[in-house]
Amino acid sequence: MTSPLARFTPALLAAAAFVAVSTATRILLAMRPELEVGGVAEWLRVFGYGLLFDMVAACYVSAPIVAWLALVPDRVARSWLHRALAVCLFAAVSFGCFVLAVSEWLFWDEFGGRFNFIAVDYLLYTHEVLQNIWESYPVGKLLAALLALAAGFADYLTKPLDTEKFVQAVGHALGRRPGVARWSITLR
Fold first, then answer.
1. Which domain holds residue 63?
2. In a 3-state reduction of DSSP, which class is residue 74?
3. Is the dihedral of CA 120, 123, 126, 129 positive or negative?
4. DSSP string, 1-64
5. What is the tally of structural domains in the chain?
6. Which DSSP symbol is given to 182?
7. Residue 147 lies in a domain
8. Other C-beta atoms lying within 10 Å of the C-beta of residue 80
9. Which of 16, 44, 158, 174 could form a cystine bridge with 187, CB 3.0-4.6 A?
10. Angle 69-66-3 (CA atoms, 0-180°, nearest 5)?
11. How far apart (Å, rounded) are the C-alpha atoms in residues 164 and 170?
């Protein structure tokens, strides 16, 4: 028997992927040599606020997915087509996360900081900015590489997991007896 919450697994995976990629981006940016941050307390503050921000942003990213999964009838949710679309949607969210991470890295290279008011100018002068980006960076190759990465990421994470071990681990972490919290992560 599966939990009624099992259908929300794609949204949970999308939110977790968003937080993971954002955290990895923050760590990679923090390792840059030109960055100077104080002691351990300052690092904990930076990463704590960052994690909080990422979790709130992940709620916004996954909200449409949660709404769809809550409203779709069981008959449709169990269909092969719906599962395939869920994997494609997860791949699209992953692709967006990777594009955002690479964009932040390149923005940091250009301006020495994360997205800020300069990024707003990018929105106001879209044509000029996009033309400059296409001339300055190998955008096609970057997007193709990120698309392949997102497809591989989605394929890897949406393969059937050993649900019995996963359920036991989650049940133990939640203080429940093994087998009480049953759900399947299988999307295929």
1. 4-160
2. helix
3. positive
4. ---GGGGGHHHHHHHHHHHHHHHHHHHHHHTSTT----SHHHHHHHHHHHHHHHHHHHHHHHHH
5. 1
6. -
7. yes
8. 8
9. 158
10. 60
11. 10
> For residue 72, which phi and psi values (nearest 5 degrees)?
-70, 135
**If DSSP codes are grouped into helix, strand and coil, which group holds residue 78?**
coil
Query: Would residue 166 count as lying in a domain?
Result: no
Cα distance between the two ends of the chain: 17
- Give the Å distances, CA to CA, from 31 to 21, 25, 35, 48, 114: 15, 10, 7, 17, 14
Rounded Cα gap, residues 40 and 45, in angstroms: 9
- pLDDT of the chain, 188 residues: tens digit per residue: 467 677 788 888 889 999 999 999 988 888 887 777 778 888 888 889 999 999 999 999 999 989 988 898 888 887 888 888 888 888 899 999 999 999 888 888 887 777 776 777 777 777 877 888 888 889 899 999 999 999 988 888 776 544 444 455 555 555 554 443 333 344 44
> Residue 133: what residue type?
I
Domain contains 184: no
DSSP letter for each residue of 110-132: HHSSSS-HHHHHHHHTHHHHHHH
| The two three-digit tokens of residue 18, written as one number | 């968003």
Asked if residue 116 lies in contact with residue 57, where contact means CB atoms within 8 angstroms, the answer is no
In a domain, 31, yes or no: yes
